[in-house]
């Protein structure tokens, strides 16, 4: 049932082209270049959005913030569910809560949903499992349509959450008039093209991940750096490495590095950076120069043609800004996977973890 793959995690990473296709299914009107989300037609465009989630789903939400603010013009707060539920948060009446949960069973996220409802706010559930508790409790449900995820470490579910968040952004951005048809169509074309791009890229991404994993297998700690929408991906890359390879890793906003973590840099503490061809590149590059000045080794997910000299540039296909995440994410997942597998860890069943966290 692993379809010839050694682990469910690897199988699910390789399913991501299909996950994007399935998430888009029936949701794109080719003629008008519009996104169709009839499940939300009854809800006005939110004036403010509170995203509530845990773990990987929280990282997806944080990525969504960058898009929703920039492209849809919606003020967004992203909250770790276990903090949100006990903080007595201020929830203005014009707000909407978006709960993101693969399983739809996470206790803290569910508590956030109940809190929002008790304050009279509409709740949208972005869930993968159909009929799950959070999907039933929410006023509106958008399914991410990733299919069953077996591996404890979440991979394809995050891909589907990113895809759904992008669709939500385009849907609201068009309805509020913030995005015009041309902008929307351009992004949708890129997104519809992504499965093919990924199908081509995945085998070589894996080969490179394997090579790097052998080189870095002795490392005991990693710093993941990203800026802008790559910052949540840095957090996710670090989380994946921790949970399946048991190697310590920290994800940081690259501009925050000089405010503390730079003290850790030495030749035995490698940095894994997102240095893509986007508006953030010059800043990321200067952060990496600071790492190099302290003799830190660097792996950088980057694009061909950029002026960047690091030990291990890892070239990925270039994609326009919000879409690059769909290429970066599997690279991060594959690196964590290959590290864990090389070190002989139980990839699909990491110690101390459960697939759905139904306790506090
Ligand atoms: C990480 C992972 C967890 C979950 C988190 C939320 O690989 O799987 O961090 O993302 O427990 O789970 P859901 O999305 O089911 O609410």
From TrEMBL:
The chemistry this enzyme catalyses reads: D-fructose 6-phosphate + L-glutamine = D-glucosamine 6-phosphate + L-glutamate
In this protein, the active site sits at 355 (for fru-6p isomerization activity)
What EC number(s) does this enzyme carry?
A: 2.6.1.16
Instruction: Cite the SIS domain residue spans from the record.
Output: 37-178, 212-350
- One GO CC annotation: cytosol
Location within or outside the cell: Cytoplasm
Tell me the protein's name.
Glutamine--fructose-6-phosphate aminotransferase [isomerizing]
What gene makes this protein?
Answer: glmS
Which organism is this protein's natural source?
Humidesulfovibrio mexicanus
Q: What does the entry give for GO biological process?
A: carbohydrate metabolic process; fructose 6-phosphate metabolic process; protein N-linked glycosylation; UDP-N-acetylglucosamine metabolic process
Q: How does it assemble?
A: Homodimer.
- Residue ranges that the Swiss-Prot or TrEMBL entry lists as coiled coil: none
Functionally, this protein is described as follows:
Catalyzes the first step in hexosamine metabolism, converting fructose-6P into glucosamine-6P using glutamine as a nitrogen source.
Identify which top EC class this enzyme belongs to: transferase
The alphabetical list of record keywords is: Aminotransferase, Cytoplasm, Glutamine amidotransferase, Repeat, Transferase
- State the superkingdom: Bacteria
Q: Which GO terms describe its molecular function?
A: carbohydrate derivative binding; glutamine-fructose-6-phosphate transaminase (isomerizing) activity
Q: Where does this protein chiefly localize?
A: cytoplasm
């Amino acid at each position: 049932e692993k379809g010839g793959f050694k682990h469910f995690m690897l199988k699910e990473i390789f399913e991501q082209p299909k996950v994007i296709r399935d998430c888009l299914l029936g949701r794109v009107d080719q003629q008008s270049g519009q996104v169709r989300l009839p499940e939300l037609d009854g809800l006005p465009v939110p004036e403010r959005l509170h995203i509530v989630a845990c773990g990987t789903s929280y990282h997806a939400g944080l990525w969504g913030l960058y898009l929703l603010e920039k492209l849809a013009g919606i003020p967004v707060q992203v909250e770790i569910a276990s903090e949100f539920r006990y903080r007595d948060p201020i929830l203005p009446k014009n707000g909407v809560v978006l709960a993101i949960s693969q399983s739809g069973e996470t206790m803290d996220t569910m508590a956030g949903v109940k809190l929002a409802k008790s304050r009279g706010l509409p709740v949208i559930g972005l869930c993968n499992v159909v009929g799950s508790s959070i999907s039933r409790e929410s006023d509106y449900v958008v399914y991410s349509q990733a299919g069953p995820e077996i591996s404890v470490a979440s991979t394809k579910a995050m891909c589907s959450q990113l895809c759904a968040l992008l669709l939500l952004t385009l849907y609201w951005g068009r309805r509020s008039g913030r995005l015009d048809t041309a902008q929307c169509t351009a992004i949708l074309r890129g997104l519809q093209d992504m499965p093919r791009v990924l199908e081509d890229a995945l085998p070589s991404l894996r080969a490179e991940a394997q090579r790097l994993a052998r080189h870095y297998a002795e490392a005991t700690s990693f710093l993941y750096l990203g800026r802008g929408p790559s910052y949540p991906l840095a957090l996710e890359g670090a989380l994946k490495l921790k949970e399946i390879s048991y190697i310590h890793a920290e994800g940081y906003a690259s501009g925050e590095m000089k405010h503390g973590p730079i003290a850790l840099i030495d030749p035995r503490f490698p940095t894994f950076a997102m240095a893509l061809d986007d508006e953030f590149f010059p800043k990321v590059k200067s952060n990496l120069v600071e790492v190099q000045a302290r003799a830190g080794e660097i792996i950088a997910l980057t694009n061909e043609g950029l002026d960047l000299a690091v030990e291990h540039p890892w070239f990925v296909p270039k994609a326009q800004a919000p879409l690059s995440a769909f290429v970066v994410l599997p690279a991060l997942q594959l690196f964590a996977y290959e590290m864990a597998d090389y070190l002989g860890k139980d990839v699909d069943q990491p110690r101390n973890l459960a697939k759905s966290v139904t306790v506090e």
